[in-house]
Specification:
With 186 residues, the chain is mainly alpha-helical. It contains seven helices and two strands. Strands 1-2 form a two-stranded antiparallel sheet. Keywords: Plasmid.
Amino acid sequence: MSKRSKRISLVFLGVIVLFILAMTWFYPYSFFSIYKTYSYQPDSVMTKEYKQDVDTFKQTSQIHFKNDLTSKRTKDILEIFEQDWLTHEKKSKMSIQELDTLLLGVKEARVTLLDLSTQENYSRKEREYLVDSIKSLIELEEKINDIRNGESKSRRTLNTQFHNLHTSFISNFKAFTTFYQVTQEQ
């Protein structure tokens, strides 16, 4: 190989490496990305308020615990709302595997709520809140799938999507707590 062909080969190899590094940086979940992770930095004010809401709910649900199926299953459902990336202000690395785990947790919570709908005898008002909570979990699943399957999403788009996912978890938590509080009033 001549000097010229070696230089051309090295330049070509350098361009390929630079391309892969750029794709990894700008499009974290792309086909060319080496480590399919994205670091999400949540809004600190939103996170603090949410953490307070979760802690308050946990305390009040323990104080006013009834020995019914809804109260017993609340502990299981609450796990999806207590995840570190939702309750801590630090950056969280979100890989495809972590999104899969997140999706699985949301699906399990939805199944738990569906089981409650068949095993418990709720009033019409309670059932409406339960259905709203189930629908919002389905929307949450769709948002997680959208992030998970969007290989060509840029960092900017992913940041917006993760922020929207975070706020969706908060609204889902509020929908669930409303359902729980209505069931406990009876």
